[in-house]
Amino acid sequence: MEYFRYIVRFLYRIRWYLAIIPLIALFIAWFMTRNMEKEYNVKTTIYTGIISGYNIETGSSVSVTNSATNMANLIHIITTERTLKEVSLRLFTKVMIYGNENQNNNYITAEHFRQLNAIVPPEIKALIDKRSERKTVANLRAYERPSADNFIYGLLNYSHPYFSIGVLSAKIKVARLENSDMIEIGYSANDPGIAYNTLEILNEEFINQYQEIRFGETDNVIRFFEGEVARLYKLLTNAEDSLISYNVAKRIINYGEQTKMVAVMDAEHREKQRNLLLDYSAAKALADFYDQKLGSQAKIIRGNNDFMDELNKISRLKSRISNLELMNEGGNSEINETLDKTRKELYDAEERIKQLTIDITTENSSVNNVDVKNVALRWLDQVVIGEKAKAEMNAMKIQRKDLDEDFLYFSPIGATINRKERHISFIEGNYMEMLKALNSARLRKRNLQMTTATLKVLNPPLFPLTAMPTNRLLILLAAYALTFMFIAGYFFIIELLDHTLRDRRRTESITGGKVLGAFPKASTLRYRRFNKIINNMAMRYISKTLLPYIKPGQQNIINLLSAEEKDGKSLIANELEEYWNTLGLSVRRLTYDEDFLSEDSKYVLAKDAKDLCPDIHEDEILLIEYPCLRDYSIAPSLLNMATINLMVTRANRTWKDTDQKIFSNLNQNLSEEKKDCMFIYLTQADRNAVEEFTGQLPPYTPLKNFIYRISQLGLTAVENKHAQ
């Protein structure tokens, strides 16, 4: 409660600062904001379809992760420098084409257009084609160069309130509406046409930028895959044509079947050759056996020219039949006729040679009791069989040569065909992968077209007819409140750091001593007629406080001490002397340099008041005024003999470290029983400090009564109107 009262008094003391300076700040703020421009706010709502859209690539809705990323990308595209640059160029074009210096329109007010038109150089005005916005934008874009002297570059990159990219980025607010698919774009400007057209252009431009970015990367991928597919298709076609040409050149219809037939023919040839070799060996062995049986008859038969001619003929015919049989694998009718004819000739030749053999041999002759005819025919059969086998073996050699040539022919063809087929398979695999990637890219483009098509302006920007409420009132209140808090804070810091004694609480807090009372400083204005009354009230209080310490029948001494000169010891001593004399008390005032010398050895070595003034009486109240303790000391005995030691100091001066040291030394020189007799008395105190001791000081006006009652926390007290 004490701290609360102190704060209230603190605020009351600086009341005029708190009342006047904030009002001055309020007036300055009012004057500075008297022409405050109005702000026009425009909003638009865009439906994106990114969150709940359908993905034809996966056949399901878009994943939460991808949708959040896409939404963030879309929001960043809206505020990216490229988008805002296009918006600024198009907005500047519209304003320069449709702006009017004499009449407001839906693009810009006349006042703001005059301001803009005044700063646009003639060469920029020459680029404005009022018949075509697109051509004007192209001209401005071509004119722009990254230079400080380039007007368009500076317009976009400095701090113009309408066309600066940095200002647009700061003022355009993009936010997603809760967890929905919609985003809201807001923008405010001091011109309704500028605010409206900025958002209208932004809606068009960011959708174009979004489509360009999304489709641009996909179109590049599609063009790449289309080129790769065309290139691989051409390579595949060339490789297949090369294989076809090679097969035609090598007369290959089905390499596997053809080589299989060659392998089968080779196996059959080897089997047949082996059988013929067995037949030839067996026939030769039997012929040799029968040749031994016939003896000379065999030589006779072999020596017959007709026999040998027929035998050779049989060999030739058999060889021819073997060749014709090899040639007739396809079933040619002409070859069949020739083959039948040749077989008949062979049969005839065999019959003739048999008859010739019979004719040559003797009909009844025998060799070793063996029938010559039968032996000769058996011999002949083996000879004929051997010749046939020999002839067929000769024919088989020709076939073997053909088969070897086939093997030599087909072997490199197989490796070449396999290599070409592997090459075709490799190209075909790449072709199918590229074709699959192309289809995926096209599907992605279609999906992007679907998601981009969902970007719809649900709430287009509306031309603002009324301005937003200005924050002028808030600025005025802020100026007043901040100034009030600054002044209060400033004085509060001073209050915390200041070592001026001022009042009872601060004095006791700073010095550590106890304040006995306060004497007011003289009022010079409206309260000066009450100075005498107020002084008397202060004297009555100090008298009332000191008298209980006075003990009748013995010597009572009140020491008036001070750390510095002119702290008010003489004033207090005179006032007390006069007041107590009016009460009939015997009072005597002793003053240094009048009643005793401060530099005299009697004072320095004094142990009693009589050492200072021998003619004092025991029943007198002595008011001893000592020299300032900063320059002179005081004997401890003089302190301990006093009834009251009163440290007099001005309330409006700083309590220095030297003062505190002097006061501490006085307390240390006091005996234990006299420590409670050391007090501080304030002079030159404010009315508030005096009222802490005396109560309310005059005048007693209703306002003063109310203020005093509030300062004493008499919130519900009833004022006594008859009180004086």
Can you give a write-up of this model?
The protein is elongated and about 215 Å long. The model is unreliable at 59-65 and 366-370 (pLDDT under 50). Helix content is 62%, strand content 10%. The chain starts with a helix and ends in a 13-residue tail after the last helix. The longest helix is centred in the middle third of the chain and has 82 residues, at 372-453. It has helices spanning 2-13, 15-32, 64-79, 81-98, 110-119, 122-125, 133-143, 151-157, 165-171, 192-249, 255-294, 296-303, 305-327, 333-360, 372-453, 472-497, 504-511, 531-546, 569-582, 601-604, 609-612, 636-641, 657-669, 687-694, 702-711; strands at 40-47, 54-55, 60-61, 173-176, 182-189, 366-367, 370-371, 456-459, 515-520, 556-561, 587-591, 621-625, 644-650, 678-685. It folds into 4 domains: 1-36 and 470-496, no CATH class; 37-222 and 454-459, no CATH class; 255-442; 498-711, Rossmann fold, CATH 3.40.50. Strands 9-14-13-10-12-11 form a 6-stranded parallel β-sheet, sandwiched between helices. A 4-stranded antiparallel β-sheet has the order 4-5-1-8. It has 724 residues and is an alpha/beta fold. It has 25 helices and 14 strands.
